[in-house]
């Protein structure tokens, strides 16, 4: 059995199929970990969801910001766009959305020594806290009144973790850290504006990638994440970044994580959009 982790697909169904062929993925014996942002921007978002649903027993998924936005669009909280319209118009829409609603924000495998969250794990959280807070979000996303909660999550974000804040603000911080985080300040406040490559100039301004933050709580497992196409592939003893910008003319990347060494396999993406594309949904 092989275990492969894949970065942001964002609806690039043809690239996903090409990558799975290249790694000889067999859902009857292999496992896939998907680091979130299954949909949006690419022209095959519906096909991507349908395929992953069809092999759901062989897949571990964490939700990304675009997946949450799709759920919000289904409930009329956010506007749709041409790349997710086919999902919302599909006779299978309810089934697919309800399947997304029961996915995780954090996946952990102690035996393999890896965990996975779309944007990473807040410097404020150790693994126990992260698991507890992920389960808190998952429970609320699965409740009957989930649309009301989702609507609150799309209001102004919360950049600082405060245990004494009200429940909604705590949830806003948690969901932002799992799905939107890139840079943090020295006091661990999240920055929601910078989306580019980490630079010395940004570091001099006090902005570092979340995994470089001083006094970040120690997590013994290696953290797999996506979300950061301008960072691209990055691998050190603590983290493994797999968003290699497929949709932006880059690649879709898989990492085999069940062996002694991490094995990397990528395929090019035939679709290339500019960041100003009208198809983009933001949270």
Describe the structure.
This protein is of the alpha/beta class. The protein has a single domain (3-268), classed as Purple Acid Phosphatase, chain A, domain 2. It has helices at residues 13-22, 45-54, 65-74, 85-89, 93-101, 127-141, 146-153, 167-179, 200-204; strands at residues 3-6, 31-34, 59-61, 107-109, 114-116, 183-184, 190-191, 208-209, 222-225, 234-235, 239-241, 251-256, 263-268. The chain has a 5-stranded mixed beta sheet, covered by helices on one side. Helix 3 crosses helix 5 (93-101). 43% of the residues are buried.
Radius of gyration: 18 Å
Order of helices and strands: EHEHEHHHEEHHHEEHEEEEEE
Count of individual domains: 1
Can you tell me the CATH superfamily?
Metallo-dependent phosphatases
Largest sheet: 5 strands, mixed
* CATH topology-level name: Purple Acid Phosphatase, chain A, domain 2
Helix tally? 9
Going by helix content, strand content and strand pairing, the class is alpha/beta
Mean pLDDT across all residues, rounded? Answer: 93
Let me know the number of strands. Answer: 13
Walk across the major sheet and give the strand order. Answer: 3-2-1-12-13
Tertiary shape: globular
Q: Under the CATH scheme, which class?
A: Alpha Beta
Name the features.
16% strand; globular; five-stranded mixed β-sheet; Purple Acid Phosphatase, chain A, domain 2; 13 strands; 283 residues; 9 helices
Short description:
By secondary structure, this protein is α/β, with parallel strands linked by helices.
């Amino acid at each position: 059995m092989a275990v492969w982790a894949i970065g942001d697909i964002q609806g690039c169904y043809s690239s996903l199929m090409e990558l799975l062929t290249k790694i000889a993925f067999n859902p009857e014996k292999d496992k896939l970990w998907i680091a979130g942002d299954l949909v949006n921007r690419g022209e095959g978002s519906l096909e991507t969801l349908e395929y992953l649903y069809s092999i759901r027993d062989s897949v571990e998924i964490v939700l990304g910001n675009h997946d949450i936005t799709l759920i919000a669009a289904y409930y009329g909280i956010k506007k749709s766009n041409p790349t997710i319209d086919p999902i919302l118009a599909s006779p299978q829409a309810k089934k697919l959305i309800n399947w997304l609603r029961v996915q995780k924000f954090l996946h952990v495998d102690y035996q393999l020594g890896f965990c996975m969250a779309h944007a990473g794990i807040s410097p404020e959280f150790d693994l126990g806290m992260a698991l507890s807070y992920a389960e808190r979000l998952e429970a609320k996303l699965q409740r009957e009144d989930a649309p009301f909660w989702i609507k609150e999550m799309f209001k102004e974000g919360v950049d600082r973790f405060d245990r004494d804040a009200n429940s909604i603000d705590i949830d806003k911080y948690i969901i932002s850290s799992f799905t939107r985080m890139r840079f943090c300040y020295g006091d661990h406040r999240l920055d929601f504006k910078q989306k580019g490559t980490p630079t010395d100039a940004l570091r001099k301004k006090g902005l570092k990638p979340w995994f470089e933050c001083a006094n970040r709580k120690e997590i013994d497992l290696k953290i797999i994440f996506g979300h950061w196409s301008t960072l691209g592939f990055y691998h050190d003893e603590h983290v493994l970044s797999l968003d290699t910008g497929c949709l932006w003319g880059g690649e879709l990347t898989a990492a085999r994580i069940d062996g002694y060494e991490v094995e990397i396999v990528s395929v090019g993406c035939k679709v290339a959009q500019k960041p100003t594309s009208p198809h983009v949904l933001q949270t």
